[in-house]
TrEMBL record:
This is Aldehyde dehydrogenase. GO terms for biological process: aldehyde metabolic process. The keyword NAD applies. GO terms for cellular component: cytoplasm. It holds the Pfam family Aldedh. It comes from Roseateles oligotrophus. Keywords: NAD, Oxidoreductase.
Length: 470
């Protein structure tokens, strides 16, 4: 990274911090205006955003961008606007009345200052503008670093966002080599990173030098568990929708599926019918490309490795297994992926669904708990005790019961990982709280009973303390 860009990063932070000190607690009206301005930007550039993302992918389904990025960002702002006044109110807290008659306690949510956001390539509008919704709602300013795989989108944001927000409020940065690590070294008041666990560790280590608090949204091998009582066709419809969405390049997609062995062939048959009906050919405009050559080769190598180890590869669309020219990979189900293979050990992040079988649910619980805690868990069962058992015994960042992915899109639910899948939350009230300092304030009364409990201590103090500690 050039010295000029490093200086630009530092100067932007100084500019935003000075603006924060000049106006540390924006009013409700100011925050509402920021949110409405952000929403107006999205609406004004809806088609341009879709086109930029598609250019970055090679091909990205316009409908997927509208469904998974544009709509959540616009609708999320509407939801925050409904609650913002209530979220900003000081919270009353109880006072120890034995000692402080007439005193009061408040928790006052106040802006942290300047928040850094490091955005991945897979949902770059959603994962930049949705966090900004909560950052602005909490009264902060923001610096946002885009991915190296989002060059067209970053160019659009860098060029057009200044007409909506001044640099002392919001500024975007492209990844031109080495920017990410320097960005994470800046002394932000909070840093949000979404991406891989490996990069997340590096970001957290850099932020630790400034004791900068971080929210890490990472990934992992999110399992779906299909129980014997759940309708197989319905499960296949729902699971294959999220597995093919964005060609499986989603941190909260179904990474792999657990199911009873005697239902596997029926599931495969249903999946073939469903996927072929949704995407008649690999060239379908509704089917998204793999983001880059490196990711494309990684996924093909993982399939080859699994097949060499004895796995059965089942492409779900007629025609070729992949098209290198368009970087599209035929959705696959993989049976009997060998232990230790990439498909078994690494987050897949592509349109490949390994199926693992079980005789008893206890086997599933033991296997999932033997690995890192996943970002999501997807139990499919209408039996409430079974679902509750899985909720109790398998920890994950979030859960969708009898579907997959949709807990992420619920505006009033917090989103975040646990353990190796991340830390901290945003979305909903928790998003506002994450980017606020929940500041405790004690207001002393005109008269304080502590005046009788100050040195020199005497018999009266002995009697009072004996009463209080009885």
């Amino acid at each position: 990274m050039s010295a000029s860009l490093q200086e630009q990063l530092q100067n932007c932070l100084l500019l935003q911090r000075a603006a924060y000190h000049a106006d540390p607690v924006p009013t409700l009206a100011q925050r509402r205006q920021d949110l409405l301005t952000l929403q107006r930007f999205i609406r004004d550039h809806k088609e341009a955003l879709c086109e930029a993302i598609s250019a970055d992918y090679g091909h990205r389904s316009r409908h997927e961008t509208l469904l998974a990025e544009i709509f959540p960002a616009i609708d999320g702002i509407d939801q925050v606007l409904k609650h913002l006044k209530r979220w900003m109110r000081p919270q009353r807290r109880a006072v120890d009345l034995r000692n402080f008659l007439g005193a009061s306690n408040r928790v006052i949510p106040q802006p942290l200052g300047v928040v850094g956001v490091i955005v991945p390539w897979n949902f770059p509008v959603n994962l930049s503008l949705v966090p900004l919704t909560f950052i602005f709602a909490a009264g902060n300013r923001a610096m946002v670093k885009m991915s190296e795989n989002s060059r067209h989108l970053a160019k659009l944001l860098i060029e057009r966002m200044p007409a909506y927000f001044p640099p002392e409020k919001l500024q975007f940065f492209d990844e031109s080599g080495g920017v990410g690590i320097e960005f994470s070294k800046l002394p932000f008041d909070h840093l949000l990173f979404t991406g891989s666990g490996q990069t997340g560790r590096a970001v957290m280590a850099a932020a630790a030098q400034n004791l900068c608090p971080v929210t890490l949204e990472l990934g992992g091998k999110a399992p779906a568990v299909l129980c014997a009582d759940f309708p197989l066709r319905l499960a296949a419809e729902r699971i294959m929708f999220v597995k093919c969405l964005n060609a499986g390049q989603i941190c909260t997609t179904v990474d792999h599926l657990w199911m009873p062995a005697d239902r596997v062939e029926a599931f495969v048959g249903a999946a073939r019918e469903i996927v072929a009906a949704r995407y008649p050919a690999l060239s379908s405009a509704d089917y998204t490309a793999i983001i880059d050559e490196r990711s494309f080769d990684r996924l093909l190598n993982a399939l080859d490795e699994a097949q060499a180890g004895g796995a059965r590869l089942i492409p779900l669309l007629p025609g070729p297994a992949f098209e290198r020219a368009t970087r599209k990979i035929n959705p696959h189900i993989v049976l009997n992926a060998p232990a230790g293979s990439q498909l078994a050990e690494r987050e897949i992040f592509g349109p490949i669904l390994p199926i693992r079988t079980y005789a008893k649910l206890e086997e599933v619980v033991t296997a999932i708990n033997a690995g890192p805690r996943p970002l999501a868990l997807y139990p499919f069962s209408y039996d409430k005790p079974t679902v509750q058992m899985l909720l109790d015994r398998v920890m994950s960042g979030g859960v969708s019961v009898n579907d997959a992915l949709f807990h992420v899109g619920q505006h009033d639910l917090p989103f975040g990982g646990v353990g190796e899948s991340g830390m901290g939350h945003y979305h909903g009230r928790e998003g506002f709280d994450t980017f606020s300092k929940l500041r405790p304030v004690f207001y002393q009364a005109r008269f304080s009973s502590l005046k009788f409990l100050m040195p020199p201590y005497g018999k009266f103090a002995d009697r009072v303390l004996a009463f209080l500690t009885r």
